[in-house]
Design goal:
Keywords: Lyase. It holds the Pfam family Glyoxalase. Its EC number is 4.4.1.5. This is Lactoylglutathione lyase. By secondary structure, this protein is an alpha/beta fold. It folds into 2 domains: 59 residues, Roll (2,3-Dihydroxybiphenyl 1,2-Dioxygenase, domain 1), CATH 3.10.180.10; 58 residues, Signal recognition particle alu RNA binding heterodimer, srp9/1. Helix content is 17%, strand content 42%. The chain has 2 helices and 8 strands; from the N terminus they run E-H-E-E-E-E-H-E-E-E. It has a 4-stranded mixed beta sheet with strand order 1-4-3-2, covered by helices on one side. A 4-stranded mixed beta sheet has the order 5-8-7-6, covered by helices on one side. A hairpin with a 4-residue loop joins strand 2 and strand 3. The two termini are 29 Å apart.
Amino acid sequence: MKFCWCTFSVKNLEESIKFYQEIVGLSLDRRFKAGPNTEIAFLGDGETKVELVCSEEKKEVNVGADISLGFEVKSVDEMMAFVKDKGIDILSGPISPNPHVKFFFVKDPNGLRIQFVENM
């Protein structure tokens, strides 16, 4: 069995796609209508994707406080400077629980915690 994608609802598909493309660095794999009031976008180059679902009928997005998506970066320090330059607040970090890893968190446009991690 392999992990295919992580799905979550978003308030604004354009804003969310922009965040995952420009900040996280994922490419848009495909985007399509899924009914009269719903649109879906898949992002990512590898086997595992991020699926964004935007429905005009859904007014609230409920993001769990204990859930985050982690993305590996070459340098936490460079990524922190990049997100600050884009006007994105650092939620927490940098954190280095051991000498082999360092990470920090931001929030996406929907309030989902995004972790950028450097394996050292």
